[in-house]
Structure formats: C-alpha cells, structure tokens
Amino acid sequence: MRQPNRSLTSSSPGRATGHRTRRLVLLADGNRAHRRMLSIQLERAGYRVAEAADGATALKICREQHPDLILSDSLLMNLSGLELCRAHRDMARQGYGYFILLTSSTERADIAVALGAGADDFLVKPISSAELLARIRAAERVLDMHDDLAAANRELQSALERLNEAQEQMTAELREARKLQQAMIRERQRSFGPFRVSLLMRPAGMIGGDFVGFHQLDDHAVGLHAVDVSGHGVASALLTARLAAQIDGLAQDRHLSPAGLVSALNDMMLDGPLTDVYLTMVYARLDFETHRLRLVQAGHPHPFLQRADGRIERVGRGGLPVGVLEGARFDEIEVTLAPGDRLLIVSDGITDASGCRGELLGEDGLRAIMQLNAPLTGHALLESMCWSVAAFASGERADDLSAVLIEHLPPAPVLAGPGGTPG
C-alpha cells in the first residue's frame, strides 16, 4: 500500500487549522439519488464533494484532484469499486487517500477481499447519516495523523538538509585546516652531511594531534621533535600549531639543553588556558661532527636504534608526559650514531595499532617491521612501515600515525679505476 507524504493544504473541518482548506471527498456511486443524498450530508458536515457516476470518472478525479477520502460503491460501471481501489493504491499521489467501500454484502470473505485490495474501511448499505459521519470522523483521525507525520518528516528533512550543509561547510574547512597542518612540515626529508632526516605524519581523520619536524640550529647541529597531543580533532590540531611555534622559539636558545627545552614547554603548558591537555614527545639534538644524539623521552613510545649490523636497541626510560606535573624532571639520553645506524621515533598510533583479535602491535611488532624492512631507507622505509601497520590492523586506523627517521648514511663505495686503482 503506497502511503506517500501529503502536503498540509487540507485538514479536518473540525480542527483548529487556520486557513487550511476543507478536505475533499470523492463520492462514486451509480445511483444518482443515493449519490446526491450522501453529497448533501457531506457538504452540510463541512466537506467539499466531487461526484462520479462510474469507475472511470472516479479514477480520473483521483488522478487529477487527489481527494482526501474516497467513498465508492462496490458496483460501478466501467470499473468496479475494488478495481478503483487497487488503481488508486497504485497511483502516485501527494498524500494518503482514505478509501471506504460501500457494499451490500456482509460476507466475511467479501470484506477480506476488500481489505486486501487496499480499502481502509467499508459501509454496508443502507447507510445511515450518523454511521456515515462517524466513519468519516474516524477516517479524519487517520488522515490527521498522516498530516502530522508528514509535517514532522518535512521538518526533519529540512533539518537534515541544514545539517548536511553545515557538514559540507565543516568538511571544506577541515580540508583547508588539513592543508595548513600539513604545511607545518616544511620539508619531508633533508640531508645534513652524512645524516638524513625523514618525516611521516598521517592523521586518522582530516586533522590530528600528532606533529613532527626538524630545525637546523647551526652549521653542525639540528633539532628534531615528535609530539602527540592528547585527544583528537580540532582542539588538538589547533594546539599543535601553537606548540610547533613554541618549540621553534625555544630551540633558538642554544644555551637551553634538550631537557631544559622540554621543561620550559612543560611550564608553558601548565600556565596556558588548556590545563587539561597534555602531550607526549621526543625532542633530540643531533651533532653532525660528533655523531652524537642527545634526546629527551617524555611519555612517548621508546625510540628504536637499529645498528648497521641489524641489531635493534630500545632507547629511553619512558618519562613523564609534558603538561601533567609542575616542576617535572626530564632526563637526557645520549646515543652515538655510527655509519649505517638509524634511529626511528614513532607515535603510539603505530605501537598501539590493534589486530583483528584485539592484540596490539607493540614493540615486538615494530621490531619485526624494522627487521623485515632493513634493506629500505628514508621514505621507502616509512611508507612500508605504514603499509605493514595497516595490514596488521585490517585497514582500521583509530589514531594518528607519525614518525621521525634519522639515518647516518654509510659512506659511498669507492669505485676502482683502470688497473684496479681507485678512480
């Protein structure tokens, strides 16, 4: 049974409906005297009435005028009452049309057939005026509910359209914010003499709370940072821009050690307006001449140092996150990167990636990825690591992925010249 939404241009004459028009009743009956008698009763009750002497005329009125109620004799010329009912139900219309079949039969089988054809109600002839109006009033209540539901659906549709427009605008703004956040990484890779630094940042959504970067301090040193702000979404992403500027500003003070820089950032976080936000990070300074890397681990996952011979060492002692405890102490660790060594710093979006059975990738999984990808370097290693994490998590990603890769490139092989001497 087709029950499309109807427009609210008609309503019950008995309701407080303002300027809404009266409901239209189609009266289909081949007996002119009987039809006129019913028509007069309906008009006196406040209804507009359209009359049809046969089924074909009644069906035409249904198509053109969409009456609210149809009173149809079961015995009509050209088209029976049941055929008219079926054709009416198959018709596309603006709203619901309540169909009452007028019949002389009281057989249950005939009534079942009428209801099966789509009739809502039936009246047995002869029809009293009181029973007719009572059935019409009952039909009014059904139509009123349809009208109210249609109005609610239109309001819901309008609200949904406004919500979609707001969502589209928000999505467009988030795309622009993503571009700005990605622009915070001015370079994805750079070489510093025998060292090369590569960066990876993949937000779980449009924007994220992870950010990585490096800044050259002088001719023989570079500062590096990997940060993960608590939470997700716009608030965390906005904070990353502020923190990136603060880290760059603090790094300009060459007298400030890595531990001192993280402590100063901790004080700024606790003095700022967002005291319920914290972050984990690794901040490091690499000296190109001594090959020494001094780093602070503040609640971030442990960096992994892969030696030239393939051995993997865990670096750091954990430490407190930044922005949690006033006066927190942050310890420095120093490692030396020999030719062929590399240090990988990742966010917990990688180590906490969850497999299909709920197991975490963890440090053992990261070690396995580094061993498997030992022949790869630079961005190729980081991209392969992302692919491995995605495969482990079956493509699901609940957190941002970020990483910093520091490589001490091995010296290029010396090619032999003619006669076996170096060229």
TrEMBL record:
Coiled-coil annotated residue ranges, if any: 142-183
SMART domains to which the protein is assigned, alphabetical: PP2C_SIG, REC
Any one Gene Ontology BP term: phosphorelay signal transduction system
Modified residues (4-aspartylphosphate): D73
Pfam families, alphabetized: Response_reg (PF00072), SpoIIE (PF07228)
Signal peptide residue numbers: none
Region (Disordered): 1-21
SUPFAM superfamilies, A to Z: CheY-like (SSF52172), PP2C-like (SSF81606)
Domain of life: Bacteria
Biased composition (Polar residues): 1-14
Entry annotated with the keyword Protein biosynthesis: no
InterPro entries the UniProt entry points to: Bact_Sigma-Reg, CheY-like_superfamily, PPM-type-like_dom_sf, PPM-type_phosphatase-like_dom, Sig_transdc_resp-reg_receiver
Record-given protein name: Fused response regulator/phosphatase
